[in-house]
Amino acid sequence: MTEEEATCTGKTPFHTRKAAKQRANQIRRHTGNRMRAYQCPFCAAYHLGHRPGHATHLRSGHHRTKEPTT
Fold it and tell me: pLDDT per residue over 21-70, tens digit each?
């Protein structure tokens, strides 16, 4: 996989930084995940990514999931 594919594949392109930040805020309110908007160096659109240091626990497989309440 090329760096461009890894950067763009499967990510929603936003035409403006404002639109990307609005979506990041929606995600934070809904899930608690803090995302950041950044301009892609390959396609020039804006994408969302985890804030630096916040995705490490997801990649390692040691993240806690919320237990359902009964």
Answer: 999 999 999 998 889 999 999 899 999 988 776 654 455 454 444 444 54
Is the separation of the CB atoms in 44 and 17 below 8 Å? no
Give the model's pLDDT for residue 63: 45
The residues, any chain, with a CB within 8 Å of residue 63's CB and separated by 6 or more, are 57
| Unique residue bearing structure tokens 């809904």 | 30
Report yes or no: 12 and 3 within 8 Å, Cβ to Cβ: no
Helix (H) or strand (E) holding 28: helix 17-31
Distance CA 13, CA 60 (A): 26
Q: What is the pTM of this model?
A: 0.66
Task: Kindly state the tokens that stand for 62.
Answer: 């040691």
Task: State the sign of the Cα–Cα–Cα–Cα dihedral 19, 44, 56, 9.
Answer: positive
